[in-house]
Amino acid sequence: MSVGLRKCAAVAQRLLWVVFFAQIVVRQFTELPYNYWLSWLPALAAIGISTATSRSARKQIETDPPAPVEVEPPVAGRWSALNSPADKVPSHGTHYLAQTYAIDITAEPAEGPARPEPVWFWPVARRGQAYPAFGEPLLAVADATVVHAEDGQRDHLSRSSLLGVLYFWLVEGVGRTLAGARRVIGNHVVLDLGEGTYALYAHVQRGSLAVRPGDKVSAGQRIGGCGNSGNSTEPHVHFQLMDGPDPETARGVPFSWRGVGVPRNRETFTVREETTPVA
Predict the structure, then answer these.
(1) pLDDT, tens digit, for every residue of 82-106?
(2) Are 162 and 121 in contact (CB under 8 A)?
(3) Domain 69-275, what architecture?
């Protein structure tokens, strides 16, 4: 599927969902001039487009699998992996927004306060500062050029209780999906690594960016801080490589972190700070 078709599919899918949910709202106030079951057609069409694009991405991987690109780790210190492509592809259960080989990682310091575990009921939510990942430096994974950088969206409370997760999926997740890629990814940075490879850092901390579009960065240089913006349940680093600068039209590219590889889900790994100096 070409870049143009992928862009059209993404826009059409979002518009269909907007129409579907708009009908639900309108029906609360008036009767629509067509059968109730017809109102499900936009949702079915959106699901059909999603299925078609996923099949296209899966076929591309099966017929012409991309080679992993080795880069430096995007963090320093002790971390653990979540939603890793070492366990399944696509790692987040979708090829949407070039997430095929994306990984989530969260800080697990050997000393100091531990990362809060998810709970059933209380507390319903926690502030970002309760998590050791919040504010941790994000490092450039290679010598690169910044092609996109934004950090104006807020860092919300965690969604790591049962009520928080239900709100995340049923209310916030739907709203962010309808609002488009920016609201799903949150604050983010895209680096051009050269040779058609781009790195994306999502859920960046509000106001933490140290770079602007057009800046040249060196491997290991601090570019921002870990946050909890966008479609995120707790402060963490979402990292992925892509074959284009726009996640709505790009395809995922597999990565390998130098000295670390690709950590599996729940695997703890340590990146020595002296091997990734921060500028």
Answers:
(1) 999 999 999 999 898 999 999 999 9
(2) yes
(3) Distorted Sandwich (2.70)
